[in-house]
Specification:
Elements: E1 5-9, E2 14-17, H1 23-32, E3 35-36, H2 48-54, H3 61-64, E4 71-77, E5 83-87, H4 99-103, E6 112-119, E7 121-122, E8 126-134, H5 137-149, E9 156-161, H6 162-172, H7 180-183, E10 188-196, H8 199-215, E11 222-224, H9 226-237, H10 239-245, E12 250-255, H11 261-274, E13 278-284, E14 289-295, H12 299-315, H13 331-337, H14 340-353
Antiparallel strand pairs: 1-2, 2-6, 3-7, 4-5, 4-6, 8-10, 8-11, 9-10, 9-13, 12-14, 13-14
Length: 376
């Protein structure tokens, strides 16, 4: 029942919401004021409380960042029943530990969020989406830093590999008007969405981006009609469900420095052959978050493959999960591969917040229920 937008403050560009408020509900309220909460993790019925607990990301992170960049303050309840307030309607503070950021992304293991102060932005009424097919993934990833360097400021910057694009079009009935000869040649696609408050400036950015993509080796450049663009973005966000519907045994979201995506994907290809698996993917090219559908039925072989994939990402300076979190599914790999000192510190933090281990026990790491001590 804690599902109210308690306050909308246009002058401070903030909203105060309860955790049960859903993204689509908040969007209706902010739209009426010409503002927007920019985190879009692909499911607009998701709750703000869930987004905060998991530090939800999504395709717009390349421009706006993820949930932790948009939460300015929290009200939370600790496991013992004590209330806690941190942060507020300000964008900077240097006053003790940042408890707001500690709770965000803690997957419900430290405290229950009961209220959040969110950062809002002016809503841009004009958007344009460009689709560029390339002959190699390396060309796609090489294009990404050049696009960001240009100052265009893309809202969305995604790559989709050939297998995922074909499956997406089939699964969602998506027709983008791409000639067959281009489909036969393209091995990877780059999707760029831009926004602007002034339509003429958006048109200029679209023309400039199209010329840049052609210079960077795109086979062709398609400026999609709004309806087709919406369908493509929606289909891209459904890639998780599409992978599961097509029999994927696991879906993971490793993140690496964006310039390392080609090296990581080379390793993915080699590991797929080594473990006799099929791996298809897409991802947030602008922030290095690679989403992979893993098709490998044998559980022991799949476990070894996942360990190798996570290790490969971490060796490139990345992390096991960019936005899906650890939960219980990745707990084994998290505890095996992460720095033991870091894990030990996290256990001590958990014990300080929740000495009896009652909040989401078994998430991130195991607790010892006989001792009531999450640090063990």
């Amino acid at each position: 029942r804690m599902n109210a937008v308690l306050e909308l403050d246009p002058d401070n560009h903030t909203a105060v919401v309860q955790p049960g408020v859903r993204l689509n509900e908040l969007d209706e309220v902010t739209a009426a004021a010409g503002l927007v909460y920019p985190v879009y993790p692909g499911e607009y019925s998701a709750s703000l409380g869930g987004n905060i607990a998991t530090n939800a990301g999504g395709m717009r992170a390349v421009k706006y960042g993820v949930t932790r960049h948009q939460v300015l303050g929290l009200e939370a309840v600790l496991p013992g029943g004590e209330g806690l307030r941190s942060g507020g309607k300000f964008v900077k503070a240097s006053t003790g530990y940042d408890l707001t950021q500690l709770v965000i992304g803690s997957e419900g293991t430290l405290a229950l969020v009961t209220e959040a102060t969110l950062r809002l932005y002016p809503r841009s009424p004009h958007q344009a989406t460009v689709l560029a097919p390339f002959t190699t993934l390396e060309q796609v990833t090489d294009a990404v830093p050049r696009i960001i360097d240009s100052g265009i400021g893309p809202l969305i910057l995604e790559y989709i590999d050939l297998l995922t694009m074909s499956a997406t079009q089939s699964f969602c009935g998506l027709e983008l008007g791409i000639p067959q000869e281009i489909k036969d040649t393209a091995l990877a696609y780059l999707v760029v969405m831009m926004e602007n408050t002034v339509e003429e400036r958006l048109d200029q950015d679209t023309e400039r981006l199209s010329e840049m993509l052609a210079e960077l080796g795109a086979i062709d450049v398609f400026v999609l009609p709004p309806h087709s663009a919406g369908e493509l973005i929606d289909a891209r966000e459904k890639a998780f469900w599409m992978a599961k519907a097509n029999g994927a045994d696991d879906v993971i979201d490793i993140v690496v420095p964006r310039a390392s995506i080609p090296d990581f994907m080379d390793k993915v290809s080699a590991l797929a052959g080594e473990y006799e698996a099929w791996i298809a993917g897409c991802g947030h090219a602008g922030d290095g978050n690679v989403h992979l559908g893993i098709f490998c039925a044998d559980p022991d072989r799949r476990s070894a493959l996942l360990n190798a994939l996570f290790s490969a990402g971490m060796a490139l300076g990345g992390a096991i999960s960019g936005e899906h979190g650890i939960g219980v599914a990745k707990k084994k790999y998290f505890n095996e591969l992460e720095d033991p000192g870091k894990i030990a510190l996290m256990r001590r933090i958990k014990a300080a917040f929740d000495p009896n281990g009652i909040l989401n026990p078994g998430v991130l790491f195991d607790t010892d229920p006989t001792k009531g001590d999450p640090a063990r």
